[in-house]
Structures are given as structure tokens and as C-alpha cells.
Amino acid sequence: xxxxxxxxxRGCISLASLRQPLDVSQALGDRYLALGExxxxxxxxxxxxxxLIESEDGLRRSExxxxxxxxxxxxxxxxxxxxxxxxxxxxxxxxxxxxxxxEVLGKTIHEIFDRQTANAFLELVRATISSGKSLSxxxxxxxxxxxxxxxxxxxxxxxxxxxxxxxxxMARDITEQVHADRITAVQNEFNVLSTSRLGLDDMLEQxxxxxxxxxxxxxxxxxxxDERIGDISLMHHTGLSDAFIDRxxxxxxxxxxxxTVMRGEPVYSQFQEIELSRDPELMKEGLRALAVIxxxxxxxxxxxxxxxSHTLDVVPDHSRIxxxxxxxxxxxxxxxxxxxxxxxxxxxxIQSIYRAAxxxxxxxxxxxxxxxxxxxxxxxxxxxxxxLGQSTRMLYPSQEEFENVGHAYYSQLRVAGKGMLETRMRHxxxxxxxxxxxxxxxxxxxxxxxxxxxxxxxxxxKRAQREIAELLEFEKLISGIxxxxxxxPLDGIDKEIEGVMKSLGEFFHADRCAIILESPDxxxxxxxxxxxxxxxxxxxxxxxxxxxxxxAEYWKRGMPADLGDIEKDSNLSEELRETMKRMRYRSLITxxxxxxDRWFGGCGISxxxxxxAWPEKIVNRLRLIGEILANALLRKSSEESLRQAxxxxxxxxxxxxxxxxxxxxxxxGRRPTTDIIGESEALRKILKQIDQVAAxxxxxxxxxxxxxxxxxxxxxxxxxxPRRDRQIIEINCATLPATLAESExxxxxKGAFTGAQARKIGRFELAHGSTIFLDExxxxxxxxxxxLLRVLHEGSFERLGxxxxxxxxxxxxxxxxxxxxxxVDEGRFRQDLYYRLNVFPIHVPPLRERVEDIPxxxxxxxxxxxxxxxxRIDTIPQKHIEAMKRYSWPGNIRELRNVIERAxxxxxxxxxxxxxxxxxxxxxxxxxxxxMERTHIQAMLEKVGxxxxxxxxxxxxxxxxxxxxxxxxxxxxxxxPEKSVDI
Length: 983
Known about the structure:
Blueprint: E1 2-5, E2 8-12, H1 26-71, E3 77-81, E4 86-90, H2 101-104, H3 109-112, H4 115-131, E5 135-143, E6 146-156, E7 166-173, H5 175-193, H6 200-215, E8 219-226, E9 231-238, H7 242-247, H8 250-253, H9 255-262, E10 267-270, H10 280-283, E11 289-297, E12 300-309, H11 317-356, E13 360-365, E14 368-372, H12 374-380, H13 384-387, H14 399-416, E15 418-426, E16 432-441, E17 451-457, H15 459-484, H16 493-507, E18 512-518, E19 525-532, H17 545-556, E20 561-563, H18 574-582, E21 587-595, E22 598-607, H19 616-667, H20 681-693, E23 700-703, H21 710-719, E24 729-732, H22 741-746, H23 763-766, E25 771-775, H24 782-794, E26 796-798, E27 805-807, E28 811-816, H25 820-825, H26 831-837, E29 840-843, H27 854-868, H28 878-886, H29 892-906, H30 916-923, H31 929-943, H32 954-958, H33 962-972
Parallel strand pairs: 23-28, 23-29, 24-25, 25-28
Antiparallel strand pairs: 1-2, 3-4, 3-7, 5-6, 6-7, 8-9, 8-12, 10-11, 11-12, 13-14, 13-17, 15-16, 16-17, 18-19, 18-22, 20-21, 21-22, 26-27
Helix pairs in contact: 5-11, 6-11, 15-16, 15-19, 24-26, 27-29
């Protein structure tokens, strides 16, 4: 029975019977045929299965052979599908990608490469698949060891069948070849640069740029080495921040590395080895690898290149090879550029020295100027064009000097080849200048070959010699003058001053020397001691008023008045100039006579024939002579005053001895409050307040009308306080001059202001441990109020002009006849100061509110004045007592005292005859208190001849302090009448 396969007979099945014949019916035949087809299918399936197994074994063996073949290739290979996925890796490792094969298989191109490289590679894969052509390409990878370069080729694996749409990619590492090509290219560039005559700076910049490029680092700097002074200077840098460059000095930051480089050895460091990384500020720069390559020529280190990387941890081997190879070529080119730069700089230096030399330099041939530098031109006033080609004769004042100098020079040049002498030359403007000339022959045997010369202007030196000689003579004169006044007696001072005037006049060849003093009465200048070279007319001895005022203005500022030329001096008015010319003045200099900042005259030297210039050194010596004369005159005045004072002191001493006995008796058993007279309720209230507050250190404010005795209350408080052993310090704020108020209260340092010749202790410092009484405190300025507030608050202050803070333990008692609360409301007195002062207020009532005390006070004053005036008064009529009680006493106790004093003065018997008219007139209201006070004070002043101070003076008669009386006189407009004086 046949069994076919696809219409083809493949075999048959045979059935036979050995026992009986077979009867094959149609049905059985159909069954046999079906059985044959079944067997045929089975056999065919077994055959197909066998063929399949044989085919798979062959394919596996073929693949293994192919893998074995590809694995033997020198370059790795990969199979990549059109989607860019790696299917096979034919290599023992994937070093091409710097990954293990297991890290590559199944990954896409974008998972292996950076985005830009992956996109380009994927385009290459697709182009290979679409074109069916083999394509080559180059690419690079950034790896920890540096950048690597590769050359790859892609080929279509199969256009049909199982491998369709896939490529095989093989690549080769060509990094070394690329670097070798780069080194060759850079070497060729430096061969060109070495012949291009680049400057040193450009050569250094090119070297740094090439070194960074060839090493594939990202930053660097190039340093120039000067072995002579051991200096390494940064010339150029790239890729580094300015802060980093400013902070890091190569030699200082890495001395060990610098020494290695100076020996000509390269240094390579990785991140952990870089010493700079220890500095947190420098770590911000992010340097991770560093190479330092010396650049040498003939064994000498000329420079060094630093290159570094912010990404690489080590310097790659190919970068080291490239840098060291490049350094050899740079050294040759740099040596040539450095030599040319040094030569150019040397020439420029020589030219600069020649042009800017502090002396004139030139060349002469056959007495003709062939070359001159700028200093010759400036020295003689000519331009180079005017001098070159001209005979040296034009430089000399005369033909004779020209010939003499030429003869002297050429004699020296022929003998020694050089010469030097002093001569005179003529400036272009005609002035004659002193010159020191030095010359050297270029050829001693043939002077026609030329002579070099130098010119030095010694006019100033010659002038200085003359001035020094004159100054030395003047110093001798000063020494002699100072010696004269050492032990001279008082009676001989004027004679010695006359001798000094004569010596000065003769020394300066002057026509007159004089001491000029200021009259204390007229404030005019007058000649005190005069020396004259000859007879002068009477009008020439007068000092014009205009000149007197001008000299005084100079002397007040402590300046000399230098009128060197009267006709040209711009400080003179035309009227004064004409006056002085009529008096034959031509030149005048004066120096002030002063002690400290106080001047009282001057010393003058006059010339009537010629003008005279006065050098500063001479003027300073004249100032010294002025000080010597001022001291002599002051000594004379002081000794005269001392003699007079000694006489007065002796008289006062005798009187004081007798008064002292009386004073001791008067003070025996005196209680602190015995001067407070009265028995009124108002007074007893005040005495109680005194007892309450005296033992404390609280600030007290005394208020009340003028004349109520606020000062007496202040002294009573002090005398009953624990501070009574120290003197109370009293100051009337109304009498303090505005400019000196701060100094009086707080003191000043020496030099704090004009006139502050020494340190002064202020009233607060003087009152330390005691009490200070500030009368009329409302008169203080706003600035002083603020400083007083600080003293009350902190107990500290500074002297005027000082910086040290002082502390004082002072008990403050203030007094005012003003309504300080109202002054605060109107903004004239500080509110905070008012509250500080008003800790314990005591109001002193006016006399009209304590009329019961008037008789007691009247008897006290009667006793005081009758004793002082040596009169005996036993009775005061009752009508006068009643009249005094009825009177309002606007001047309070002070007015009562004055009325009693006036009555005692005019009284002639033992009964006090009080003139009631003055009280009646006052009670009518027709006269104001101020008018009454003015009339009374004027009467007292006229009585004593306007004498304020001293025994029997107006201040004593009125019971006032002299300073208080002066203040009242100024306020009331009282002035001493001027006497007519014949002038």
C-alpha cells in the first residue's frame, strides 16, 4: 500500500499471508490505504523531527563557531537591533563601554551613552539598516580616567531571515593615536611660533592655552620663574575664579611642590593629595586633580604650567605624556621669546635712563653738540632742535669762559681720558647758572672721535652753601643773644635789648631795628627800643596807624609780617603804600613777641634802600630771637610787678593778722543757722525742712524772689550736712560768660581752646565730696542743661577738650528766682532737668510774708553796720518799725539791708533816723523795683568812686559778691563814666 507525501510516493506497506490466501475486498483495500496514509504520516513526522534536531544542532554549532570567531577579534563586537537595544556582546568584557557584559545586554543605546552621543549613534544604526552599507564613525567617552576616543564600524547583519533589521557593531580604542596626533600638531604649531617672534607675554598665553587643550584638563595657570630672586609669578590663568587666584600663591601655598618643580621634576596630585583642599575656602573651587610641569631650557627652569581638573580624580597617563612632551617644545620657544624680551627691556631701560636721567647727558664732536637728553634741554631752556648741531660756545656767558673751559677740559682728557670742573652756563632766558661738568673721551688718542658729557645744575647747591654760611653766622648771633639774658639784672635788660637791636641791624645791613609794643591804654603800637644806622627825620620814627593795624592783625595770628617789597606787596592798601613810601620804607619784616598765645608787641627790621627776601629758615630764627626778647621783657615786667606785689603783700599781711584775730572770735560757738534771723512761722517751716533734708544727699531746689536769702539757706543746709567738713562751692550761673560756662562747671584740658594754657579743674570736680550751690540755675543754656542732667543722673562728666570720663560725688543745691515750671512750659528749661532738681523743693518766702521778722533783721543790720562804721545806735523809733512793716519790700531782705545801711551812713546820733520818704515813694507805686535798684547801686558806686572790689568797695557795702554786682551793673546799664583824656 503506497503512502504519498504531497503527491509524491514516499514508500509503501506490504501485507502477505503464508497460511492462506488473502481476499482483499474493496472495503478492506480502502482500510489498507487509510492505514498506509497513517503510517506515512507517522514516518514523515519522525523524519521531520530528526531533521529538525539535526538542523538545531547545526545552527548551535554554527553559532558557537561564530562566537568563537568573533571572540578572537582584537576589537569587541555587538549586535544591536533597529531600536538601539544590545542583543549580543561578542567580547570577554565590555571595556569598550567601561561596563561588564551583563550591564550592557538588554540595555538601549540611551542607557549606555549620554543623550547627544546616543542620538547620533541611533541615527547611524538606522542609516546602516536602511542602506545596507557598512558605515564607520568616531566618538568619545568621558570616563573616570579621562576622555577616551574610539573608531567604530556598523554592518548589516542580514537583509532577510531571522537577522533582518539588526546590525553588528565593532569599535576600536584610538585614544593613544588621537593624543599622539594632537601632540604632533601642537609641536608643529610651536615650531611655527618659535620663528614668529611672539612677545614673552603672548608666548606664555599660547603655551597655557595649548597645555590645557592637549591635556584635556579644564583649568590652569602659567608661572614665570626668576631663579635670581627665587620668585614665581603668575602670568596667565584660565578656568579659575579670581577669588581663588587672589587667595592662592603657588610658592607659598605648596612650598614642597614648588621645590620639586624648581628641580625640574613634574608633580602630579590627585584630590586627596592636594594640600590646598584642606582650606574650606579653596575647596569651593572644586579642584580634584592637579599637574605641575616645569618648562626648562638647557637645564634651567624658565616657567611652570599648572593644569587641573574639576571632574577627574587623577591626571590621565596620556595627559602626562602630552604635557611633558609639550613642555620640551615650549621651553625652546619660551627661551627665545624671553631672551628677546630681556634684550628689548634692556634697551628700553637704557633709553629710559638716558632720557630721564637726573643729570644732563650728551655727546660733543669738535665742540659741536651731536646728542643731548631731555634734562640738558630743560636745564638750559632750549629744545633739542635748537641745540643739536650748534657750537658749545652758545652755552657760555663769554668767549673767554668758553676758551678757558675748553682748554682745561682738553688738557684733562688727553692725560686721563676724563675730566670734571665747575663752570657757569647761560640759560636761554639770559640767567647764569652754576654747572658741574663731567666728560669722558671716546678715544683718548683722537679727541675728534667725540666726548660724552654730563651736566649737573649746582646753582641750588651753591646758593645753599651761601645760605648755610649766613645761617651759621646767624646761629652764632642767636647763641650770643641768648647768653646775654641768662643772668642779666633787671636794670640791665633794656641795655642788652638795645645791643641786640644793633647786632641784628648790622648783621642784616638794615636801616633800623626796633622793639614795638602795644600800649595797654590806647591799643596803639609804639617804638620801645630802636637802633638806627643813621639819622632819620622825625616823621620816619612814627608808626602809621594803618601799618599799626596791619602788624597787629599778623601778630594776633602768631604770624610774621613779611613786607619784602613795599611797592609790590598786595596786602597793602594804596593809601598805606603811599604813606610808607613817603617815609622811605622799602622792605620790612616783623615777628610777634608773645608768651603762649598772648602777644604784646613785635620785633621789626626795616630797610629804606633795597627790597629784601627773607628765607623761611631766617624767619624761623627771627621768631626764636622774638621769643628770647619776649621772655626778657616779660621777666622785666614780672619782676617789677613782683616787687610791687611784695610791698602790697607785706601791708596786707599786717592787716590780715589783726583781722584774723577778730574772725576767730566771731566764729567761736557759731551755729550753722545763726545767720538766719527770724521767728516767723514761715521761717520755722524752712528750718524744719533744713533739718529734714540736710543729712541726705538729695538734690534741693530753692525758689523765691530775689533778695530773700536763698544762698544763706543753701549754706545752712551744707553746714548741717555730713559734708560740712568740705568747703561748699558756690557759682552764680547768671554771671558765667557763654563761652566759658562749660569750662567753669566741668573744667578743660590744655589746648582745648585758645588761651587754655594748662588743665583747669571745674567746679563739679572741685566739689567732690562736698556741696555745689548753683544760683540762678535757670540762666544755663540748653547745652549746659543737658550736661548738668547727665551729672545728676550718672554723676559723670568730661572736661572740655578731654575724652576721659570723670566721676564726682556732689550734693547739688539749685536756686532760681524764676518760675521754672513756667519756663518748662514755654520751652526755655528742660523738663527732665526740672524734675531732677525738684526732688526736695524749698520755697523761701518774700519779706512781706514774714513781717514779724523785720524788726529782728533790722536790728541785726544796724548792729552790723554800726560796728563797721564805728557808730553807736541804741534805738530804732517804733514809727520806723511800723513803717517798715507796712512797706512791701520788693527787694526783700537785700533791700532792707541796703535801707538800714543808708540810714546808718547818714545817722548822726544814737537813735536811728530812718528816712521814711524812700519807703513812701516806693509804696506809692510810682517807682519800679529795677529803677530803685539802679538808683541805689549807682549811689553806692559813686560814693566809693566806682570801686567794686576790695575793702570798702561797692560790693562789700551792698552785701553782694563782686561777680554778682558786675552782673547787675551790666543788666541795669550802669557803666563807669569815661574821663576826658588829652591825646
